Every structure is written in C-alpha cells, then in structure tokens.
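Propose amino acids for all 251 sites.
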C-alpha cells in the first residue's frame, strides 16, 4: 500500500462506521482527496484534534482500494476561531462547499488550495466578510477558468467604462442598451465597477470599498457570476444568508 504525505485543508467531514470519520481534503499536489481517518472518534484518539473542520494540516496517507487511509496528521493552523462564531462558521462552510464543488480528485491545483487556505485564515481576522466573499469568489472564478469580463457588454461587446448592470438571465455584465425584453436590469455604481476591477487585478487579499452599500453591491455581482457558473444554489449559501439575517436583528 503506497504511502504519501500532503499539506491540506479539511473541507468536509462526517462520521463513518462506529469509530471512523470520512474526510474531504483539498491539497495542492493531489487536488481533492476523500479519505478515512480510522478510530478518530475513539476517546483519547491522538489524531482527532489534528483533523478539525477547516484546519490546515500535514496529512500522511496510505493508498486504499476505494478510499485512502489517513495514518497520521499534524495541525499547521487549526483556525479554531471559526468554530466559535456562527457568522464565521457559515462563511467557512460556504467557502468549503464551493471549494469542494469546484475541485477535482487527483489533479494538482496549487492556486485553488492557496485561495481556500488563505480565505480560512482571513475569516478569523478583522476583515469585512462581504469583501472577503467577493474577493474569494472573483479569484475562484479566475482560477477555474471563468474570469468574468468586466470590460465589455456580454451581449453586444461594447466597452463598458464605468456604466454597467446585471440581468438575471445573462451571466456577464450588460450595457444599458442590452436589457432583454421584459428583463430587469440592476444598474451598478461606478464605485462598484472600479472596486470589482481592483479585486480582479489584485493577486492577494486587499480590503475593498469603504462604503457598505458598495461592498454589498460588489458582493451581489460576484454572486451573480458564481450562480451562473454553478447552475445551482449551494446548501451553505442559504445557511450563510439565514445567519446574516439573524445577526442583523437587534437583540
Ligand atoms: Zn450591450
């Protein structure tokens, strides 16, 4: 049974059998890995604490017939703060579900691993979560080959300048002349357009717009692009919105 070692983040985990756990890992060298951690639910298991959800770890594996077996793990960053707050937790679930949906087994992808790892480590910091999601989604689309065109109308290819909008049925941005008959165009502010272009040009996390309205508008656009690529709603997305609505209610 050949052994191998990877650096990975834990995207998903569930109970398996009576004492084991099934984990979905994202690694730079092997892409997505589904593996069994044997005996980790036994009281006193030494591995248990090293394979927390969203943790960044060094993982030692043995190739199995169907699923690989985790033989040892060492935590590099536990990201424990995420698990102490419902808002952070819902955001991390969303990032993990998108990372899971868009990664491939046995296919190395360092940029995707690096993006997810970086997003998990930013969640616990003092970052604005709307901006973090926008940055994550825009960068993710770029990595998987769906970089949104922010410069041209998706219908007539006219250069957009700082005036554009989004329409439910069209995946890209549209100019004001191209609203489909009966369609509803959401016009975007020049600040949002500039902010989105700034995010697309930046290779690392940078805090975006000062105005909350602009940040929310940018997030709406990034979500619009992701929805068109995914063609389905993610379970964690609804959870994230519900938590945000709940947290917006004054206590
Ligand atoms: Zn147009």
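Proposal:
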């Amino acid at each position: 049974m050949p052994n191998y070692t990877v650096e990975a983040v834990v995207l998903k985990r569930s109970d398996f059998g009576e004492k084991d756990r099934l984990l979905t890992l994202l690694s730079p060298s092997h892409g997505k890995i589904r593996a069994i951690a044997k005996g980790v639910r036994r009281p006193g298991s030494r591995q248990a604490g090293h394979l927390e959800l969203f943790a960044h770890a060094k993982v030692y594996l043995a190739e199995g017939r169907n699923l690989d077996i985790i033989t040892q793990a060492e935590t590099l960053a536990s990201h424990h703060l995420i698990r102490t707050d419902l808002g952070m937790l819902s955001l991390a679930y969303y990032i993990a579900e998108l990372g899971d949906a868009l990664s491939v087994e046995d296919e190395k992808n360092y940029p995707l691993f690096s993006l997810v790892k970086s997003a998990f480590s930013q969640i616990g910091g003092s970052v604005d979560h709307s901006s973090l999601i926008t940055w994550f989604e825009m960068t993710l689309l770029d990595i998987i080959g769906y970089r949104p065109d922010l410069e041209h109308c998706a219908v007539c290819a006219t250069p957009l300048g700082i005036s554009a909008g989004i329409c439910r049925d069209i995946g890209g941005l549209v100019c004001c002349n191209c609203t489909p008959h009966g369609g509803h165009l959401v016009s975007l502010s020049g600040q949002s357009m500039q902010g989105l272009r700034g995010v697309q040009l930046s290779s690392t996390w940078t805090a975006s717009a000062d105005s909350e309205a602009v940040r929310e508008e940018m997030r709406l656009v990034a979500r619009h692009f992701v929805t068109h690529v995914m063609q389905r709603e993610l379970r964690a997305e609804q959870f994230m919105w519900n938590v945000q609505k709940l947290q917006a209610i004054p206590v």
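Residues 212-230 form the longest helix (19 residues). The chain has a mean pLDDT of 88.
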